[in-house]
Amino acid sequence: MDHETSLKAEEVLTVDVHAAKNLINSGHRYLDVRTVEEFENGHVEKAFNIPYMFSTPQGRVKNPKFMEQVLSACSKEDHLVVGCQSGVRSVYATTDLLKADFKHVCNMGGGYIAWVENGFAVKKPKMDL
């Protein structure tokens, strides 16, 4: 299918954090694609984490099992809001999900940084109190 192979980042639906919050509150699942370390330092409430990339001494590398892990946690029919730290990795992850025939996926523009800047609820480790 030509459309699948030619899908570009600009074709990804990106919503702002206010719209993302409304979607999550109405039943969409929030897929946080940040690293485990980033996620553990604080995340959107009710989020689940599947890293799109891993941090290595040589820099970030793509998680080769990303799609397999998403498919074990979600159905292609699930309604997903995908987010990361600032909104870049989530565009790539959302593009990959759309190419894999996920039907209801959108990217959260601005990521976790924008979520926090808007004062929305987050879950943080207890030691940060």
TrEMBL record:
Pfam families: Rhodanese. This is Rhodanese-like domain-containing protein 19. CDD domains: RHOD. InterPro entries: Rhodanese-like_dom, Rhodanese-like_dom_sf, STR17/STR18/HARC1-like. Residues 24-124 form the Rhodanese domain.
